[in-house]
Amino acid sequence: MKPVIRVELSPEPVSIDREAAKLAAEASRGGAGSLVVFMGFVKGVVDGRRVVFLEYEAVEDLAVAKMREIAEWAARQGMVYAVEIIHRVGRLAPGEPTIYVMVVAEPRHLAFRLASDVLDRVKREVPVYKLEGREDGEYWILGEHERLPRRAGGEEAQGG
Amino acid sequence: MAEGAVARVKVRLVSLLRDAVGSKEVELELPEGARLGDALRALYASYPRLERLVAELEKRGLAVLFLVNGEAAGRERELRDGDVLTILPPASGG
Question: Residue B18 is part of which domain span?
């Protein structure tokens, strides 16, 4: 069975139930029995401050191409039946899903490991960017942790 | 080569770089055979705030990546008419 690969930027959330049921139904025919889902969601508090929104922006063609490259890499790592990466774009509220990674693989420890590895690679390599809107202002997020305050007129903070 | 041949290069920006310039796309007109370094000089001449921001990011260890037609490129890369230059800060997806 050729692995199912699905990568997508989505302004809307997806139904994990529906997606997982579909993948399991297909993959079970090939003898698979393990599906792992990672779902990220918007934090409501960061650094003790209330988060109002998280806005995701992608360089679409490059982001989709890179997600596909990562999914195809994962699919080559063993008995992998499906890899799906769905990244939300747009303005999201606390609690809303941000990214879904779904892996169907045997044995189950491979599915767990690949879901984690795929997520790590997406965070490092896919050109998607966050703007964090908090009660104390808006912050551009760069890399895993760096925050630069967004000033009026787009000017950024100088120095530390 | 025709005299005065021009390379029109589209520059794509995202995140705080887009915010600094006020647009996600900018078009540059360069002499045919111009290199990426020349394109950046022209871009920064029009958008000095962008240059300051890129320098600030580099100082913080957040160097941007330059892609030409989707592939990483250095300042010596020669540009052709229709090329797309994308300037990417360190990603923050996921």
Answer: 6-88
Q: What is the predicted pLDDT for the residue at A159?
A: 42
Within 10 A of A143 (CB to CB), how many other CB atoms are there?
Answer: 16
Determine the 3-state secondary structure of B18 from DSSP: helix
For residue A54, the chain B residue with the least C-alpha distance is B93
> Per the domain annotation, does B93 fall within a domain?
no
Gap from B67 CA to chain A (nearest CA, Å) = 10
CATH numeric code, A4-154: 3.90.1170.40
CA distance B41 to chain A (A): 20
Length, in residues, of chain B? 94
Q: Does A156 contact B20 at a Cβ distance shorter than 8 Å?
A: yes
pLDDT in tens, chain A (160 residues): 799 999 999 999 999 999 999 999 999 999 999 999 999 999 999 999 999 999 999 999 999 999 999 999 999 999 999 999 999 999 999 999 999 999 999 999 999 999 999 999 999 999 999 999 999 999 999 998 999 999 765 444 444 3
Please report the number of interchain residue pairs, chain A to chain B, with beta-carbon separation below 8 angstroms.
87
pTM: 0.93
Distance of alpha carbon B33 from alpha carbon B1, whole angstroms? 10
Q: What is the value of ipTM here, to two decimals?
A: 0.91
CATH number at residue B20: 3.10.20.30
Number of domains in chain B: 1
Spell out a b/e string for B48-58, using b for 16 or more CB atoms within 10 Å of the CB, else e: ebbbebbebbe
Q: How far is CA A124 from the centre of its chain?
A: 11
List residues bridging with B11 in a β-sheet: B26, B85
How far A20 CA sits from the closest chain B CA (Å)? Answer: 20
| R_g (Cα) of chain B, nearest Å | 13
